[in-house]
Specification:
- By secondary structure, the chain is an alpha+beta fold.
- The chain contains five helices and seven strands, in the order βββααββββααα.
- Strand 5 and strand 6 form a beta hairpin.
- Helix 1 runs antiparallel to helix 2 and helix 2 packs across helix 4.
């Protein structure tokens, strides 16, 4: 089924809505939904297999969004909600003011989303994790030949390293 972007909702496996307060009409989300950053930082410490499953799911999810022309202008890990279910993971995107739909997303914006989502603290999201994410992303992508995939991965890695170097090491040192 095609995805339809709107300011209210993005295609997702929406988090479980537990309560609806009738007086105020407010939807209350309970704690079974956590941000992507929360899932990955917690799993990096305790369970590498779990962390890799989360990375694969998020990579596939972002690829499906892009395959359907959906670009999120502020796609950092705190704007992804992840919850675990019996069937796997449910992923939702929040902060949808920057969402745009394209017939085909420009390559520059694809790289921007990949950089945004993979610029985690390197103590729990390594370069190898970024590679796993890219692999999952391209497994679900129908748009790019292998040469373009390598170029996208190289550009993404270059930009992430620059940002992490500035943030964690300062201007003088180079991030591995």
């Amino acid at each position: 089924a095609p995805f339809h972007a709107s300011r209210q909702a993005l295609p997702s496996s929406d988090p479980t809505i537990r309560d609806f307060e009738a007086k105020t009409g407010q939807i209350i989300l309970r704690q079974e939904t956590t941000t992507c950053r929360g899932h990955l930082s917690k799993s990096a410490i305790h369970n590498f297999k779990y962390k890799r499953r989360v990375i694969r799911e998020i990579g596939g999810y972002l690829s499906r969004l892009h395959n359907n022309g959906i670009f999120h202008g502020d796609l950092h890990p705190n704007n992804l909600l992840v919850s675990e279910t019996d069937q796997g993971f449910k992923i939702s995107i929040i902060d949808n003011e920057c969402v745009r739909q394209y017939r085909r997303i420009p390559l520059k914006l694809v790289i921007k989303n990949l950089v945004q989502i993979t610029k985690f603290n390197p103590t729990f999201f390594t370069r190898q994790d970024r590679r796993r994410f890219s692999k999952a992303y391209f497994e679900h992508s129908h748009s790019y030949p292998s040469q373009t995939q390598r170029r996208i991965m190289a550009k993404t890695d270059e930009f992430v390293r620059k940002r992490l170097t500035r943030k964690f090491l300062g201007e003088k040192k180079r991030f591995p």
